[in-house]
Amino acid sequence: MDGLRHRVVGLPATIKGVPAAMVEAVRMRQTDENLDNKFGTHVWSNEDLDPVMPERRNWTTWTFFSYWIGESWGASTWSVGSSMVAGGLIWYDAMIAIIIGHLIGSILTIWNGRGGSIYHIGFPVWIRAIFGPWGGMIPVGVRCILDLVWFGIQTYFGALFLDIVFQCVFGHSWTNLHNSLPESSGTTTRFMVAYFLYWCFQFGSAFFRPDQLRWLITLKAFTIPFACLGLFIWSLVRSGGPGSFQAIAPLGSATSNRKEALAWAIVAAINNAINGEFGPLIASEPDITRYSKRPRDQIVGQMLAAPWSASLTATMGIIAASCTGKIFGTAYWTPAGILQAILDENNNPKTKFAVFLVAFTFMVGQVGTNFIANLIPFGVDASGLAPRYINIVRGQIICCVIGGWCMVPWKVLVSGAVFLSCITGMGIFMGCLVGIMLGDYFFVRKGNYFIADLYTSNPDGRYWYFRGWHWRAYVAYICGIFLPFPGFLGTLGVKSMAAPLGPAMKLYNVGYLTSTFTGMAVYTVLCKISPPHNVAEAKTMPFEYMGKMEVLHGISRGNRDSEDIEDIAVTEEKKL
């Protein structure tokens, strides 16, 4: 273990241009002192980046099953299918696309979560093995930006449900609240009050780590399906059955090649189903699976829930949209839209109470969605960018503040169509990243990683490459996004790239899968042709051999002053 001590080399605990007193004020002293005691000056680690200790690995098969039930039976998934039909797809084509897309997304999710469940490290540490310690900062930074934007958007959706809750409780006293904001703000005083209160409501979740909020995941899994089913059954009973599904799709004009257009629309729907429900979560899956009690828990739990639950919810959304078109004359794609229409039509006490229960359940569910999908990834990623100053809790607080307010989601969703297209289209950047991660784990290193070398800035470290950058990973990354990138520009307004059936848009319509498998193939081939110096050692070992004897460096909970590194041998029988 002395070798580990010498390999871990840090950087000065100062920031150029920032007063030393300010740097000292924000530095995590206790964590910093503990790291100094063990390793000397060390900036690549803190308690949230180190491998998860055995006593904190409490995510079981049921936890992962509950996670996907709660995540899939929600407002975002509900609207996926109906928006596809609204875009012109026939309802059964949309259902087929959703089922295929969610099955592919589930497989990629479980595949990419394998390493986290074996080595118990998160995405920002994992990426160091592939891109290098410094090179990994860019993918982590991209992921942070996406987390911030989507946190704000999900908070906006949660505030919509709180607004409905207040309508049920306070009636006209709430709906007639005077608006003192200008039209240019893109919102109203009433909604901003609801938004602020909802932001405060979910802010408390920022102070917890994933292993501390399993109860929230279980609560969401038990409650949100009843809200979805209740809304779905009401729509069926009230309408007497679905109306014409084409009533929720625009008429549009006939194309010269309708079959080709329909085929590419289905392909695009499959891609959107993967990117919309699974895309950001696939890359950061190790942030969740690192808490697995056993590797098989994440496999069984997610496979039992992820493929079918999201598809079922999206299908209910399609049928409910058709029913609401028959009831109200206008199809509503979202649960919030349906609940608001019910209140506008009939606000008697019984109706208000029923709407209150459903809206409140969805509102609480949004807290769980934001916590898992955005707060945790940003907290871990931000910790990876500045481990001496940010732990996961501090990172989550930063996400709440910046994502909730600086991203101005009420403006983005109302008038920021180009910006929203940009953020949605960035799935190609994350898909390519997933492909490279999968190629590195399964085809290049056979699942063998030397964990201690992921926390060192010593040039002799196995993953230091060239000054902390791995050129093969970046060549593969550029190749992966090269093919769908012109179509991505087309969605941002570059007219020469925006032809619906042009080559650029066709490649973009399968952008997530194209970038994923292109990145995987290019990276694997490059590592075969020009192997990194650290690959030969890993390839001589059996698959995941290193994962069966892992070294977890951390401070014993029973002796906070100990300078010893805790060696924990995990036998093959216990792992499997």
Automatic annotation (TrEMBL):
Transmembrane segment boundaries: 89-111, 123-142, 148-170, 191-209, 215-237, 353-377, 389-410, 417-438, 474-494, 506-526
Localization: Membrane
Any Pfam family matching the protein: Transp_cyt_pur
Membrane topology: Multi-pass membrane protein
GO molecular function: nucleobase transmembrane transporter activity
GO cellular component, one term: plasma membrane
Signal peptide extent: none
Top-level division of the source organism's lineage: Eukaryota
Protein family according to the UniProt entry: Belongs to the purine-cytosine permease (2.A.39) family.
Protein name as it appears in the record: Uracil permease
Source species: Venturia effusa
Top-level taxonomy: Eukaryota, Fungi, Dikarya, Ascomycota, Pezizomycotina
